Amino acid sequence: MALSLEAQSFADRTITAHLGRPGALLGILERVQEHHPNKFLSPEILEYVAAKTDVPLSQLYSVVTFYALFNLEPQGEHSICICRGTACHTRGSRNLLRRLRFELGLPEESEDGADKLCMTTPDRKYSLRTVACFGQCALAPVVEVDHAIFGHMNEQTLHREVEHLTKTKEKK
Ligand code: FES
Q1: Which of 6, 36, 50, 96 is the least buried, fewest Cβ under 10 Å from its Cβ?
Q2: Residue 104 to residue 61: CA distance in whole angstroms
Q3: Ligand 1 neighbours (beta carbon < 6 A)
Q4: Tens digit of pLDDT for each residue in 18-75?
Q5: Atom of ligand 1 at shortest distance to CA of 132?
Q6: Which CATH class is domain 78-171?
Q7: How far is the CA of 139 from the centre of ligand 1 (A)?
């Protein structure tokens, strides 16, 4: 799909504001992703940024596939991220992941222990993903719900948080 003029204009402004600064590329990609209603980087926007910054497209793909914060698929309205690092795993993150998949109606996959998983419900309300470590292992198991970090998470609290998101959504 062609990139809209509005998306091009936002990318132009973002590139102008960031170029030449340390970490410019990450900043540009992060802002452009955040600007998209479905919080992801489409092939079209990546091609556009590559052309405008003179960074090879292959290098952009290396960056966005390396960092967990970047999405190459459209995301749900709410995001829930479960840590699957060693500390969180030993404190029960696998069960949190299973419980949430069940609640959201997301299919079980054989790669249940995968470090990097990202699934979105068909109605695009929720995206469930995993990370290798949040760097907050003392709080294991750690879960991020719409960018808020929750430490020492358990199934009941996670259920309550998801229920809260659902109710908030229904009130809108
Ligand atoms: S292993 Fe989960 S925060 Fe480090």
Answers
A1: 6
A2: 30
A3: 83, 85-88, 133-134, 136-137, 140, 142
A4: 988 888 999 999 999 999 989 999 999 999 999 999 999 999 999 999 887 899 989 9
A5: 1
A6: alpha beta
A7: 8
